[in-house]
């Protein structure tokens, strides 16, 4: 059985990624993503694409309008809009 990822583990991983300089407008926490593609379908700007790993990739970050639809529609809380974005 796959190991369950706790909220605390997720928080630590995301925090580390941001410390390393993650600067895309949205973040996907892949262990929680079940590859349903809802976020890809609802993005009004076609920012997201499914990657080879069957997880959404931020393919066109420059087109993101930070509308939050991906975050709102994800059934697993696996994707979120980053509040602060580096210039
Ligand atoms: S915030 Fe809006 S525009 Fe940006 S990736 Fe999500 S759905 Fe697409
Ligand atoms: S909506 Fe959530 S679970 Fe579905 S593909 Fe997107 S990030 Fe993964």
Bound molecules: iron/sulfur cluster
The low-pLDDT segments are none
CATH top level is: Alpha Beta
Distance between the termini: 42 Å
Please write the string of helix (H) and strand (E) elements: HEHEEHE
Structural class: alpha+beta
What share of residues is helical? 25-40%
Task: Give the overall shape, derived from the CA principal axes.
Answer: globular
Number of strand elements = 4
- Radius of gyration, in Å, reads 13 Å
Oligomer: single chain
Percent of residues in beta strands? 5-15%
CATH topology name, in short, is Alpha-Beta Plaits
Mean pLDDT: 93
**Major beta sheet, specifics?**
2 strands, antiparallel
Please indicate the count of domains: 1
Number of helices: 3
So, CATH architecture?
2-Layer Sandwich
Q: What strand line-up does the widest sheet have?
A: 1-4
In short:
By secondary structure, this protein is of the alpha+beta class. Helices cover 26% and strands 14% of the residues. A hairpin with a 5-residue loop joins β2 (48-50) and β3.
Overview of the structural elements:
With 87 residues, this protein is of the alpha+beta class. 26% of the residues lie in helices and 14% in strands. It has a single domain (7-81), classed as 2-Layer Sandwich (Alpha-Beta Plaits), CATH 3.30.70. The chain has helices at 7-19, 38-42, 69-73, and strands at residues 26-28, 48-50, 56-58, 79-81. A two-stranded antiparallel sheet has the order 1-4. A two-stranded antiparallel sheet has the order 2-3. The radius of gyration is 13 Å and the shape is globular. Bound molecules: iron/sulfur cluster (2 copies). One iron/sulfur cluster (SF4) is lined by residues 25-26, 43-45, 47-48, 64-70, 81. One iron/sulfur cluster binds at residues 25-26, 43-45, 47-48, 64-70, 81.
């Amino acid at each position: 059985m796959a190991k369950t990822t706790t909220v605390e583990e997720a928080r630590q991983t995301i925090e580390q990624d941001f410390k390393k300089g993650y600067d895309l407008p949205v973040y996907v926490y892949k262990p929680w993503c079940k590859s349903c593609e809802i976020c890809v379908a609802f993005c009004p700007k076609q920012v997201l694409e499914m990657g080879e790993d069957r997880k959404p990739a931020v393919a066109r970050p420059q087109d993101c309008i930070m509308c939050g639809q991906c975050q709102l529609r994800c059934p697993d809380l696996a994707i979120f809009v980053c509040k602060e974005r580096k210039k």
